[in-house]
Amino acid sequence: MLQLAVILPTYRERANIAPMVARLDAALQGVVWEAIFVDDNSPDGTADEARRISLTDPRVRVIERIGRRGLASAAIEGMCATAAPIVAVMDADQQHDPELLPKMLAAVEGGEYDLAYASRFAEGASTEEWGRPDRVKASGLANRIANKVTGVELSDPMSGYFMLRTETLRADAHRLSGVGFKILLDILATVDRPLKVKEFPLNFVARIEGESKLDQTVVFEFLVGLYDKWLGRIIPTRFALFGTVGAMGVAVQLGALWVLLKVIAGERFVYGNWSESATFNTANTLAAIIAMTFNFVLNNELTYSDKRLRGFGPLLRGWAQFGLTCSLGLLTNVGSAAVLKTIGFHSVVAVIVGIVLGSVWNFALSSRFVWGK
Ligand code: GDD
Ligand code: MN
């Protein structure tokens, strides 16, 4: 009977698939297992490679997702796609040692522990990948919050290598966030009762094939995950990010305007007295373009990091499209405020409603046209 499913999210891991399957096979002698590669339509043909192996080794399964990106959601979908009573998640890039799987299985299968995971910072562990902020020993604010949120002391709450009973996961799968949150943390924070966790020291080796896809924004991602967990149902996380970036854009425009006026008007510049309207309008147009560009870059990096535009062509096109949507948003903003004011609303109320409507409009348009498919 099927005992264990190993979920391996992949993005551009073609060269790692065959070695990974061979290593699973070697490590899991005597265990009835399946491996599920969850690939986000990698351009290097990772899914094809996994399907090629699956033809002769049906223990290997493939889920290919089109038009979506994301490690956490890939892991969740993989875990929900197996009939095996126990499920593990691990990286497909061979940085996680499959030799730990039988030990984790022994801990979880007997019911002694609810969850087993591999820690890069437990006693006896090691890591060949220092120099990245999240790779630095568990001490940071993120880890302290993580321990508070989960009620479990973990030496490596950001680990991506763990195992648990599938039913534990399935009972709460609909409440998992799947957004920018480390999936292990998400599970521990979502399951209501504290889970009994067994730690295994991991020797986190350097990558041999391919390159890392996770960026330096781990702490940011973590905060987004917390937000999503607590407030995501009230204000959609992406819209909250978009709005926050927009508010920063306002500050950038004001700052840029101030600097530009000082530079252009020089000696004649008196703060609060922008009487030369031509100068003012030129400077403010430039400041608006600067703010718009700032918003575009930040949204591309953070709000839409999973759909990030890359390369000169796509970036230029995205920037122009974003400029266009912002202009339409501005019309919505100013227009709705004007209407509200005419029908007797207080100016401040009219302006605020205008800002909200303009932002919603901007968000809807740019989600669809700038970062949409
Ligand atoms: N399906 C899918 N979609 N898989 C992805 C995506 C994605 O958008 N991004 C990355 N992956 C896969 C990779 O192909 C790899 O198998 C695994 O997820 C880990 O990605 P890496 O890019 O190798 O991550 P890392 O080594 O830098 O990060 C490691 O440390 C993190 C904590 O700092 C991983 O172990 C993470 O799981 C861990 O959270
Ligand atoms: Mn890796």
UniProtKB/TrEMBL annotation:
EC number: 2.4.1.83
Domain annotation Glycosyltransferase 2-like: ranges: 6-169
Statement: the UniProt record of this protein carries the keyword Glycosyltransferase: yes
Pfam families given in the database record: Glycos_transf_2, GtrA_DPMS_TM
CDD domains: DPM1_like (cd06442)
UniProt record similarity statement: Belongs to the glycosyltransferase 2 family.
Protein name per its UniProtKB record: Dolichol-phosphate mannosyltransferase
Organism of provenance: Novosphingobium subterraneum
